[in-house]
Amino acid sequence: MARFANGTLIIKSEDIERVVAAQPENTSNARAYFKQTKLKNSTHIAASEIKREYGNVPVVVRGDTGVTPKHGLDVTDIVPMPVEIDDKISAVESDELERATGEGLNQIVDDYLGQHADMVRNTVNALCCQAHKGSIDYMMKTGSGFERYQVNYGTVKSVSFGKALASLTIGDAVKDLASLRKLCVDQGVGGQGEFIAAADVYAKYVDLLAAAKQTEAIKDGWLQLGPYKVLEDNDSYVDVAKNGSKTTKSICDAKEVVYRALSAGQKLCYLRLDDVVQKTAVPIYSFTEKGEGQRGVRLYTKSKPFPLVNVKGLSNGKYQ
Predict the structure, then answer these.
(1) Phi then psi dihedrals of residue 305, to 5 deg
(2) CA atoms of 12 and 224, how far apart (whole Å)
(3) Ramachandran region, residue 156 (left: φ > 0; alpha: ψ -120 to 50; beta: rest)
């Protein structure tokens, strides 16, 4: 339980766990791809470990003028960028904290930590979305504002289906999905897989199944098209450009379908933070310190997520 003493708010690990446990279910299809979550008690990932498992090493660039490290064996470590949230509890609110009972204190703390946990989750979902295309290019929230964060995992195979979405038939659609899966199988990644379809593509698939009187193949948020499971792209995140303009994005672009092999070694890693007293990796960590001039409380939340994908297990295609 959180406690307030001598003008300082003390947050414990169980406070963070309580808040995270109270979050609603994460329904992001992008995040759901990374069923394996791995805590790594290091601030970096050895390039040799990634190369051994995936055959290539991601290139990480931080900042608008970041330096791209050399490829291959010259790269020894991959250092992911942390999510950093810097918040302030005002002096007036601090007085409320001091007067609050244990239950009231928890409610105030939960409100702040809940907002932070949502920000971390939304950032993780966005990174998972972008990883489906083989790269990350995202404006990350840091303590000093925003910083461009780029990761290149390699090239994801893509094709143009060469036909208009409006004139699509069920037969065409099944062949197109088969061709996307084959791109991965030909690179040695077989087994089960599934597809994510943009809203307009998914709507067309639904119309085709309905016209063919196969409505039993239309489920809640997904459908069965021939032998293939197709999920509707339900992700949405806002990316901030260098000039401050905002763009809403998702996994798929318009008229696009993404294929993902389910056993391609993908995982979501959380690395140890390198500038806090917490010495083991955790998905999210919060701590406090007194505000300037002993007024108020600074509340910090940090996380270092890093989705790892095997680009050979991903492909995408687009209609006209």
Answers:
(1) -85, 150
(2) 46
(3) beta
Q: Which two tokens stand for residue 19?
A: 């808040």
DSSP string, 101-116: -HHHHHHHHHHHHHHH
The encoded tokens of residue 306 equal 């890093």
CA distance 306 to 82: 9
Contact, 297 vs 94, CB < 8 A? yes
Over residues 104-117, the mean pLDDT reads 80
The dihedral built from the CA positions of residue 71, 35, 270 and 146, taken in this order, carries a sign that is: positive
pLDDT of residue 210: 96
Say what the pTM is: 0.86
Query: How many CB atoms are located within 10 Å of the residue 204 CB?
Result: 19
Nearest to 306 by CA among 88, 94, 79, 122: 79
Asked whether residue 73 carries a pLDDT value surpassing 50, the answer given is no
Q: Could you tell me the pLDDT band of residue 216, with boundaries at 50, 70 and 90?
A: very high
- 241 three-state secondary structure: coil
